[in-house]
Amino acid sequence: MTGATTTSLHFAPPRRLFYALTALLACLVVATRLSGLNASPPGLFRDEAAFGYNGWTIAHFGVDQYGTHWPLFFRSFGDYKGPVGVYLEALLTSFLPLAPWVMRIPNAIAGAALALAAGWLAWRLTRSQAVFLVLVLEAAFEPWFFHLGRTMLEVDLLTPLCYVATLALLCAGGEQRLRACIAAGLVLGAACFTAQPARFFTPALLLIVLFAFRHSLRGARLVALIAPVAVATVTLVAAASSTTARLSDVSVFKGHGLFEGIGLALVDYLQYLGPWLLFLHGDGNLRHSTGVEGLFMVATAVPLTIGAVAAFRRRAEPIATIALLALLIAPAAASLAVGVNARRDVISMPFFLVLLAYGWQALVPWLRHRPVRAVAAVILVVLCAIPYYLDYALVYPNRAAVAFQSGGLDAVKRAHDIAQGRPIYISEDISPDALVALRPDPTRGDAFATAGFHLINTPADVDLAQPGDLLVLTASDKPPPGATLLFQEVTTGPVSLGGPPVEAIVVSVYRR
C-alpha cells in the first residue's frame, strides 16, 4: 500500500505539470492570436474587406455582393473566394460588427488550432511531452505561422490545419481504424474549400498518402479516405471557372515560351526551399511577411536540418514518406505562378512541422543530457525572437501601412460625407473598403453604385469624373490635372527598429 502511494506521488506531479503547461500554453496562443488584430497588421487590405463584406451580406441578406443567393464560391476582384472563409465571416458578422478585428478572427482561431494540432501530431509521432510542447510553440510563434494567423487575405491556416489533422489521425496505426480513416477523409475533403492552393494540391496529397500507406490501407478504410476528396474534386471541376480564376494571369508561362516558363518555375522552386525565404528574409510582400527574419527564425534551421536527415533515414515509415514527397511536390505547384509567395506555399507548412517533430525528437535527449546546452538553446531562440516581435509591435505597422491601405476606411467615410450625394470615383485597390465602411444593401443592385461609388479600373476611368465629383486614390494613382486635394491619410513612424520617422501617403481624396 505504501509502495503504491509512493509511485503515485512520484508520477503524478510531472503529469499534472504537463497538463498545466499545456493549458497555459493554449491560453497564451489564443491570447496572442486575438490581441491587437486592429493594429498589427494595420489597416484593411482589399481581400480582407471582400471576405468581410461578403460574409456580412450572406449573414444579413442571404446573398453575396452581386446578389447571388448562397453561392459555393464568391466572385471577387479577379478571382473567387472559397466558401469556408466567407461563411465563417457570415457566422461572425451575424452577431459581431463588420470591423477589421472581426474579419481576422477566422485565421486567428485557425492559427491557434493549428498550433495545438501540431502538438497532437508531434505527440502521436514521438510520444514525447517535451516535443509536444515545443511543436505547439513552433507552430504558434514562428514568423510564418504567427503572421498569417493575423490577416484574412484568405483562410490560409485552415489548409495546413486540415492537413496536420489528417496526418495525426493516420499516424501511429490510425490507418488501421475505420473511424480514423473516415475522419481523415472528411477533413482532407474539407481542405479543398479552404485556401486556394488547397484546391489543387489536396488531390495530389491524397495520392501521396495512398502511396505511403499502400501496404495497410484496404477495403472500407481505403474508400472512407478517398471518397470525400473525390466528391470535393468533382465539385471543384464542375465549378472550374470559379476555382481556376486568375490562374492564367499569374502563370509563369504567360508572356513566356514553354522553356522560359519552366526556367522561371525552377528558379522559384529553388527559392521556396532555399535559406533566403525560409530563414533570412521571407516573402518580399509586406502583406505576407514582415521582412524581418524568414518564414522561420534562423535558430529553427538546426531542428529542421536534423529532422530532414531523420525523415530520410525513416523514409520507410508512412509519415516520413509523406513529408519528404510533399515537400518536394508542394513548392513545384506554387512555382507555376509568378513570384515566390508565402501564402501559396502554406501547403508545405504541415510537412515542415513533421520535420521539426523529428528534429526535436533527436535534440531533446541531447539537450537534457547537459543543462548548459538547453540554456544555450533557449538563449539562442530568445535572441532570434525578441527583434522579430519588437519589430512586429512597434515598427511593422508603419512599414506595412501602405501595403494594408491603413486609413482607407476612414478616408472612405469622410469622402462620402463630403460628397453630399455627388459621385465618388474610387481606386479599385481600395474599393472594398467602401463596401465595409458604408455597408450598402446588395439586393438593390450594384453595391458600389448603391453606395455612390464608381470604380477606377484604368487611368482612363478618372477622366469620366465631372467637375465637383470626388476621387479616392491610392499612392500609386495619378490625380487628374487641376484636381483639388481635400485631404490625405498619412502614416508617420519608423520603418526599422531605431530608425527615424518616415512619412508615407496611403490614401488621397481629391475634388475634380
**Number of structural units classed as domains:** 2
Report mean pLDDT, rounded to a whole number.
Answer: 91
Tally of helical segments: 23
Global geometry: globular
- Biggest sheet statistics: 5 strands, mixed
Rg measurement, Å: 25 Å
Structure write-up:
- The strands form two sheets. The chain has a five-stranded mixed sheet with strand order 4-3-5-7-6.
- The protein is α/β, with parallel strands linked by helices and 512 residues long.
- Helix content is 59%, strand content 8%.
- α8 (158-170) packs antiparallel against α9 (178-191).
- The chain starts with a helix and ends with a strand.
- The protein has two domains: 104-395, no CATH class; 408-511, no CATH class.
- Residues 1-12 have low confidence and may be disordered.
- The protein has 23 helices and seven strands.
- A hairpin with a 6-residue loop joins β6 and β7 (501-511).
- The chain is globular, with a radius of gyration of 25 Å.
From the structure above, extract its key features.
5-stranded mixed beta sheet; alpha/beta; single chain; 2 domains; 512 residues
Task: Summarize the SSE layout with pairings.
Blueprint: H1 2-34, H2 46-61, E1 74-75, E2 80-81, H3 83-93, H4 100-103, H5 105-126, H6 129-141, H7 143-148, H8 158-170, H9 178-191, H10 196-212, H11 219-238, H12 240-243, H13 247-250, H14 258-272, H15 275-280, H16 301-313, H17 318-335, H18 349-369, H19 371-394, H20 396-399, H21 408-419, E3 424-427, H22 431-438, H23 447-451, E4 453-456, E5 470-474, E6 484-494, E7 501-511
Parallel strand pairs: 3-4, 3-5
Antiparallel strand pairs: 1-2, 5-7, 6-7
